[in-house]
Amino acid sequence: MSLNHKIFPLLLLAFLLPPLINGSPHPQRGGNHRHGRPVESVAVVGPPTITTSLDNSNAFKPQPTDIIDNDDTTTISTPIRGSGGATTTTTGPNGPIITSSPSTGTGGGKRGLAYNSSSPSLQIFANTEITWVHNWYSSPGDAPSEFLFVPTLWSDESPHSDNWDTLAAGHQYLMSFNEPDIVGQANMQVGEAVTAYKNLMFPLRKSGVQIGAPSVSSGSGTNEAGIPMGTGWLGQFLDQCDDENTCVADFVSGHWYGCPSGTCSVSADVSSFQSYVNDLIGTAKGRDVWVPEFQRYGDAGGQQEFLEAVLPWLDSSAVVRYAYYMVVDGILTTGGQVNELGGTYAGV
């Protein structure tokens, strides 16, 4: 068979498969939104390639995939997860709720892990400063029960919202909508997100769970769709979601990524990160603050220096929980084992 005869069927298949798998894009969100679950993304090894200055965080992070694992969309009972510290269980209107006291140590119970299906076993971080984990998804996969798992409602669209009530049951904290201010992520106008939050997140608060406002990027201004970015988006959301009877957020959440590799000094990235976190704290207006996704780009030495500077600062700050991006070979692990950078982060 000639090369052309071999290539043509593949091109035809590539053209036909996405509509069959994904369905049509959300009419208000444009074709850049891809359905799927970030937990199934493929590992990317090596330094990121930055494509825009507006959206550094989109360059080297889990992207939703086109193929959905059918097992993930099955209605299941979510087990009560551990906490890394002492735990107690109480019964609310919708079932058991786990609460925890943070483990002792320099991390103060704040330090967590971001992971996905390409990450090695999180058991390698047992008996460290790590107390909690998240994977941009609603089910923990094979995460060890000694860590508190925090589910995420990645967006309000199917399949992410499928069985959400069941998957969210029994957890102490829930995060919502991943980077709605970025077109390639949840991609939501503020008003649209408020409506979805009222329908999908707020009802769960009655069971005693703490719910988080959508996790915004560290961008500024507006994106290519005209949507405000970063704390600008978050501030508008909180203004529209500030009623104990209909819509409220117990904590806010923000993501930060540093300059493209080699373009900023470590000290500049440290300053930028601290400035963003302080802006996030100010925008929160007394709500708890989480930073469940942050990273300095560049080589391991620069990241090491960055973490050595920001970890003590975070542990003494108003930030309640944080997670460095991410558990994958080339960042926090090497050959499936904790590397030097991972050891610094985990406090070992």
Let me know the number of strands: 13
Distance between the termini: 57 Å
Mean pLDDT: 77
What is the gyration radius calculated from CA atoms? 20 Å
SSE order: HEEEEEEHEHEHEHEHEEEH
Q: Give, in spatial order, the strands making up the sheet with the most strands.
A: 5-4-3-11-10-9-8-7-6
Quick take:
The protein is of the alpha/beta class. It has helices at residues 3-22, 164-168, 190-200, 230-240, 266-284, 300-315, 340-346, and strands at residues 86-92, 95-101, 111-114, 132-134, 148-149, 152-153, 173-178, 210-216, 251-257, 288-295, 319-324, 333-334, 337-338.
Keywords:
348 residues; alpha/beta; 9-stranded parallel beta sheet; two-stranded antiparallel ribbon; 7 helices; globular
Textual characterization of the structure:
The protein is of the alpha/beta class and about 350 residues long. About 25% of the residues lie in helices and about 20% in strands. The strands form three sheets. Strands 5-4-3-11-10-9-8-7-6 form a nine-stranded parallel β-sheet, covered by helices on one side. Strands 1-2 form a two-stranded antiparallel ribbon. Mean pLDDT is about 75; it is low at about 1-60 and about 60-105.
Helix and strand arrangement:
Elements: H1 3-22, E1 86-92, E2 95-101, E3 111-114, E4 132-134, E5 148-149, E6 152-153, H2 164-168, E7 173-178, H3 190-200, E8 210-216, H4 230-240, E9 251-257, H5 266-284, E10 288-295, H6 300-315, E11 319-324, E12 333-334, E13 337-338, H7 340-346
Parallel strand pairs: 3-4, 3-11, 4-5, 6-7, 7-8, 8-9, 9-10, 10-11
Antiparallel strand pairs: 1-2, 12-13
